[in-house]
Amino acid sequence: MIDLLERQGTSAQPLQPGTTPDERPARRALQAQIERLEGDLAGLFSASWPRKGLKLGVDLRSDRPRLRDLGELEQIRDALAERVEDARRDLRERHAVEDANRRLVEDMLRRPESHRWVRVGNADIGEPGCHHWHVVPRWGFIGMFANWWRVKISSGCPLAT
Amino acid sequence: MGERTVREGWVEPGLAEELPGLAVYWLTVGARPGKTPAAVRDRMRELAGRITGARVVHSRQDPVPWSYRVLWRRLGVDPDSDRTPVEALMVERLERGGLPSRGMPDDAIVVATLETGVPIVVADAAKLSGGPGLRPAATGETLGGPEGTLRTGEVVYADEQAPLARLDGQVAADRAVGDGTTTMAVCALAAAAVAQIEVEEALWIAADMLEAAGAVATGRVEGSNPGRTQ
Questions:
Q1: Taking the CB of residue A76, how many other CB atoms lie within 10 A of it?
Q2: Is residue A111 a contact partner of residue A103, using CB atoms and an 8 Å limit?
Q3: Contact predicate A142/A131, CB 8 Å
Q4: Cβ-count burial of B188 within 10 angstroms (0-12 exposed, 13-18 middle, 19+ buried)?
Q5: What does pTM read for this prediction?
Q6: Between chains, do A45 and B75 touch, taking CB under 8 Å as contact?
Q7: Distance between CA atoms of residues A102 and A96, nearest Å
Q8: What are residue B128's phi and psi, to 5 degrees?
């Protein structure tokens, strides 16, 4: 027994496993995650329209289509997850700003004199088109000095369908 | 219209195991390349009118285009820079303001792909060795031509002897449809979650158009409306 322990204690090489780990469950799990994240990203892309300035592309170098090893699949999954999380956060922040702008438009209509020269467009509330609300004085200089203000609502491009 | 049989192609076993549901379906149709008939150009014009910016944006969530985005992503391709065939056509429509006609079989491919979302590839059937399938490219294989170099392991359409086409639709120079083509092999790539009926519809649309265009060119049929109507 002591002889056996001594022999094991002087061994320089660690024992190697006699089998190769099966990567298939891990690959299947990663493929499923990639599918789900791509679906989430597509949903965010649709939800973000027509807003501009939101980053929805994935920071990963595109390559010719081929089977990926486990490390590459993890990279793809991680890049997608990061982009989905960032996009969700950015969209939430944008929604908050747009909600505030909608309340601003309501207040402009109620009390235009409190929002002199303020202009809010459809892009500010997350809507498509060129529609905008602009607080301007009634009758020019007379309105400016008499504190008569109104909201001028423009429907945008005259040729828009 | 003659009898046509949609056949299922082969998929390399490792690829099939990694990507269950990946398949290629194909059929052959007697047709020659040539000018696009007026009826097909009208159909393309009507199709272009239905493709708006909003529709392109929301198409990412449609089941069929989304399935190909997932396939591209799983194969390491960024679908936002190297677009799937249906998205590439939609973006081209937006950028050009329409769908330019390029003759047959290209226009048949455009209509079938845009109507169904399923990518279509057309080759000269007489030059194929056996049925088409999907496999990784071996080292040194090419499609011919200056941009035909394939990366080792790149997933491609292939017949029993050599690579046939890239997944994005570039066909090997020696098997592409040419002036001497009399029979075309129409191949459709099926991603997971894409129903076989949708793939077959894409094949039938393309085959109907190709056959009818050939019939009009030879004077056998007049006033036909190639392809399926909505």
A1: 25
A2: no
A3: no
A4: buried
A5: 0.83
A6: no
A7: 10
A8: -85, 145
Interface with chain B: mutation pick from A48, A66, A73, A77, highest number of B CBs within 10 Å: A66
Q: Is A64 on the interface with B (CB under 8 A)?
A: yes
Q: How far apart are CA B9 and CA B24, in angstroms?
A: 5
| Tens digit of pLDDT at every position of chain A (161 positions) | 555 555 555 556 677 666 667 888 999 999 999 999 999 999 999 998 888 888 888 888 888 999 999 999 999 999 999 999 999 999 999 999 999 999 999 999 999 999 999 999 998 998 888 889 999 999 989 998 899 999 999 987 666 54
* Spatial distance between the Cα atoms of B86 and B66, rounded to a whole number of angstroms: 10
ipTM given for this complex? 0.84
Q: Are A65 and B155 in contact (CB under 8 A)?
A: yes
**Could you give the CA distance from residue B137 to residue B151 in angstroms, rounded to a whole number?**
7
- The alpha carbon of residue A65 is apart from the nearest alpha carbon of chain B, in Å, by 5
Rounded-to-integer distance, Cα A144 and Cα A136, Å? 9
